[in-house]
Fold these 2 entries.
Entry 1:
Amino acid sequence: MAKQAVRFSKKKRTQYRFQKLKMCKKCNRYSVLNDENCPKCASEFVGIESLVKSIFKNRLLTESIWILIIVCMGIVAAPTVETLYYSLIAGVIFVISYVLLTSIFMKSEYFIQLKKLLRVDFKKIQAGIQFDSDLAKEDVKQDQLAPAYEKLREIGDFMDNDQVKIRRVMVLNEIALRSDMELELEELIPSSYDKDFVKYALEVLKINRTLITKKCIAYFIHYRDAVVIDFGMDSLISVAGTALRMKLYILEFSGFIEEFLDYFPKERLLRLCNIVHANPDVEWGSLEEKTKRLVAMKYHYDPDFKRFVS
Amino acid sequence: MYSIVFTSALVLILIWKIYKLFKNKRSSGHFEDIDDELVIMLNEGDSIG
Ligand SMILES: [Zn+2]
């Protein structure tokens, strides 16, 4: 089946994750998606921060009403005119101190209110994310892969489980990936072997090697037998080839690289020689020896390798 | 006498308020912690997928 050509919208970034939470007040439902309006009732979502602020404001309003009642009662109950004036002045000083104190401690009060709201509404948030997840499922069913992926990407910020990761990977495997796409790989590594993930990772490797990180290479090494069964030896050779991207990776995975040295294309081997040659102080172990031997055997006539052949 | 009672009442309310504010200040932390707590809560015994 031909892969779908799609364009993802840019991922919205916030300083904190919780800032992505929003609520439809009409449906009383949370969401983590990018939509501005509730897909169910079309009313506008309210961000969690505005929600906390409005709760905070309501609390202050209730408090101030109580304070006013107390001060007014004090003034009304004053037995003499003198005490009445005294109560009035005391009341005003009291109100000013109350307001000042509250504003000084605004930040911690806001923090506590936010924490409280998240704890109290935790079940609701969970249900909201489940609803978002169902929307993504619906998108997949209707072959709307870009919106489905965008939804799963947002959900993935909150749900760190294999199920969500694999669903994202499965959608990505149906899409024609391009190097200008904002792709993720390390974030999608599942906790056990998954064929879909490996398929996706090998696709990513072709278009953007920089996404193949240490954790990803370690995953391939850990599940190498299964990878070879499903995708053949060439896939491991390509992964070992990407490990030549950085000096640090070469040192970390020298054993793995050494295994596939004979199978590397010339360009990869040249890169390895360059790095080894440029860092004579580094302890490369048997990798250096084996590389030298291979170059002497296979490329001694090649002018590109001339400076490495002694 | 009345002034003393009224003033004491107001001062008591203020002290109680200050106590609450300081208590909240002590138990407040970083927003990163809220983020972590939220993710941990959501992923504990999760069924969303
Ligand atoms: Zn709604």
Entry 2:
Amino acid sequence: MPEVAAARKIRLKVNGVAHEALVEPRTTLADFLRGGLALTGTHVGCEHGVCGACAVLVDGTAVRSCLMLAVQADGAELMTVEGLAESDGKLHPIQEAFVEEHGLQCGFCTPGFLIAIYELLESDPSPSEEAIRDVLGGQMCRCTGYQSILRAVHSAAAKLGAARSASATPGA
Amino acid sequence: MAVEIPKRLEDLPTSARRWVGRHVQRREDAALLTGRTEFIDDVVLPRMLHCAILRSPFAHARVVKVDTREAESLPGVVAVVTGEDALRWSHPAITAPDGWGTHCIAAQKVRYVGEPVAAVAATSRYEAEDALERITVDYDPLEVVADPFRAMEESSPLVIEEKGTNVMLQRVFTWGEVDRAFADAAHVFTEKFRWNRVGANPTETFGAVCEWDPMSLDLTVRGSIQSASHFGLGRAATFGLPSNKVNVKSHPHGGSFGGKGGTRGTDIACMLSRKAGGRPVKWIEDRMEYLVSGGSQAWDRHYIASIAVDGDGRVTGLDVKLVDDLGATGEGYGAISAAKPLAAFTGPYTIPVARYDLTLVATNKLPASPYRGMGPPPHFFVLEQLMDIAARGLDIDPAEFRRRNFIPSDRFPYTIPSGNEYDSGSYEEVLDKALDLAGYAELRRQQAAAREQGRIVGIGVASAIEPGVFDWNAYAVVGMQGTGVPEGATVSIDVLGMITVRVGFAMEGQGQYTLVSQLVADYFGVEMDAVRVVQLDTQSAPPSFGPGGSRLGVAITGAVLGACERIREKMCAVTARLMQTEPANIELRDGKFTVKGMPGAEMSVPEVAGTMLARSDLLPPDVDPRPEATHVWTAPGRAPADEEGRAKSYLTAAQAVHVVGVEIDPDTGFVEIFKYVVCDDCGTRLNPAVVEGQTEGSVAQGVGVALYEEYVYDEEAQPLTTTFMDYLIPTVNEVPAMEKVAVVTPSPFTPLGAKGCGEGAIHTTPAAVMCAVNDALVPLGVLAREVPAAPKRLWKLIRAARD
Ligand code: FES
Ligand code: FES
């Protein structure tokens, strides 16, 4: 058994809040977020990169936090599921769409889906069915059978599109 | 006090139902979507330690020596346990069949890969796992038995030597004159089928936080537990504790589907806690542990089955021989899955006689666990393939063949040969709607055209029963005891009229807290948000089993409405006194207690509750002043099973027809589902959106077991499917889009006429997909007998047919 390497200091921003922490190099980003920062909304379903439950945004890109080390996130800006809703509790349109379309049952996989869908809609506001399936294909859900999640993605895209055009309308 | 529970939606005391029976958004969702729901791995307790478990790499070996000294000396390590601790502090697991249990940590020998041999509690999981690497175990490998037929041979090694055999149970159940039916039949069709191991794989694995006080021996277990009360009884038996010393609190969990398991890990964490002076010990199973050694595997079945058919195309007998490989022990209750087909043995058909030749065998594989549907899904896969084989043999369209054999609507309640009673149904209507929605005639035309072009296209039409609201009597044949599965709820109205409902089960994904709120809101005429649902642990909760056997929706409806009825009676008495009339003259409607025939003479629910709790001066002396009641509901009319296993067991029988279209790629053996239609009848739909979600999720799991999922072992019983790269859970790209339609035949026996619907489509989907696959293969003259019909298998079949 190799000796455990000494802890290192990292600095990062999660959901807009700056953190500085000492972490062992072997600590996964998922374990650090959940244990070190008590952001337990990020879930771990497989710890080997297949299920997607642990997805978080690192500098705008969705990554599997079970496959990344916390020290690799030094200097990065992260967003987790806790960063989606507004501080007054108002749900993000993607979350609203999930409620309306019953896009969740047990909800354990859901944080990963929300992050993956958020990344998709940020880069591609009206994604094709193929683009949606491409992204969701990397996320596992054992409860819903995905049909309601597909509906939620379409509905969220429409909501966000409507919000964008409302704010783009002069005088609105 | 007998309580009359509303049998129909119209019986609810409201003139405009706002919640029950409507598409209602779930109250569980906001917390789940924002990451605020507390799952078990989110729990942090003061002084808490973390457990990691060392597991056997051998399927069968003597444990010669376990040396933990080095591990114990590592920094951060607080306690280590081995088989010796298990022998000292625990009993072998309670099992079905009885007497096939072992200790939670192997003491003398290991019986499957992944069996625990030692465990560590340390201040972090990382340290605990480091310590496992410093434990040395000397094994002396033994001959392995990985095949149930080999296990039944005289010369086979024994998995549990003291039993003197590997056969856990061997029985033949005969219901009616089966030999005569087969002798008299115009046609008999016999086939062999193989159903490989599959399993639940909820996205959250099992986890628990255990505290066992070494002085008082009080034991507290928090965990992602499907049935807290049942789990608590199991721990009491394992540790020889009085049952009231064990308190279990289930946490919201990330799915279960019967396959949460977790008993060994829990027992190990309990012993570590005791060794660590009562400090809480958290054990979170990782996915590889789950796949290899958790509650992950079910249904490892070898079938030979026959049906007898008369000259008019009516099925006159069914004969099923099953050898089920339950793995090393009976601790996972996999045997229940072999018993449950009795609740719906002959499916939706009028088959008058049947035989079930059942053999349960131990091998050096992981002990089998339950999985959604609990056993009928493979049984219906077999029955429906036979129905198709017979239909082809008689040259009858498969849909028509089923119609001819359906139980007609006017024959309910209908008792099947294996003893259960089906409550109600409209099977032909369900079939017609499914065929209509699928455009069946057109589908057949398209299929004919595709075949002209040499394409391998098939259509499956299958029907199955979903037994709902389980009873222990259904499993009497594998040694389960008891009749009735009570579910309780306490409804309380406070002095301001706010309502709280206390229940004993945790959120698991089926929206039952929403259902509870819907029921109470409509009953007392309030907003759903005014109803708070609170979960209690086993030392405080009313009797509760929780979800399982498609029961909770029906059972909790009975419990909540029963409690509401009891409160109504108390409030009627109070109102009557205040209004100076008889209770019989008072009626509750739309949240108001009114004097019949006297418009305006009324009191609201908060007014009556406020009077009861804050105006004792106005109360009659003989009245119970609490606007609170508990009701414990259990299915009516159940009785113990007879010698042949016959009983009215499951209270409801939902039915479904699925129509599936597939095309098989001859070059890869890959099955594409191009059509998926569901029509089902699960009685009154209390929250149709939730029912549809259960259906969609269950179809997905059914497609998984039909085409992709499989636990593979080699001849040395080494598991080869140890990650999600090997065990293939369907993604969005494998689950077909579905078209759905429903028929509603309310149950005459249940609260509001609802039928169990949680397990749902997995009863029908594997059968329907395989019917379609085999329909596609007809021109090639081959039959897919094995599930999953993975590309490798179909490719071989197609190759063999074409060569
Ligand atoms: S937990 Fe990271 S992908 Fe499954
Ligand atoms: S909602 Fe349960 S796994 Fe997706």
